[in-house]
TrEMBL record:
<protein>
    <recommendedName>
        <fullName>Zinc finger BED domain-containing protein 5</fullName>
    </recommendedName>
</protein>
């Protein structure tokens, strides 16, 4: 049964795509997004464009919501004078600090 979002020619291309063993191998070895993006250079540009519209909105929404959640958790009404920019940069970074190595160079605090 043909999906209503596909034209007849796109549906025929989808049938061709599912029977192509080379593309099946490519689909199994790449991520889903990489696979569909690689099809834009072939005879499947229409299908690739439709697939791309499904993948792109979620990535940008996720990053935005993740950043907002980190900001909201750091900047509460009790910490409204806090300069949140350096802390937020650390929270959103993909680099994980090596806490043991950082603490190794510090001297323990002596009592007064």
């Amino acid at each position: 049964m043909k999906p209503s979002s596909l034209s007849s020619s796109d549906y025929e291309r989808l049938i061709d795509l599912t029977s192509d063993l080379t593309l099946k191998s490519s689909f199994n070895s790449n991520s889903c997004a990489e696979f569909w993006l690689s099809l834009k250079d072939k005879n499947y540009e229409g299908l690739s464009e439709k697939a791309k519209t499904l993948f792109l909105p979620f990535a940008t929404t996720y990053l935005c919501e993740s950043g907002f959640s980190s900001y909201a958790a750091t900047k509460t009404k009790y910490r409204n004078r806090l300069n949140v920019e350096p802390d937020l940069r650390l929270q959103l970074s993909k680099i994980k600090p090596d806490i043991a190595k950082l603490c190794q160079n510090k001297q323990p605090h002596t009592s007064h």
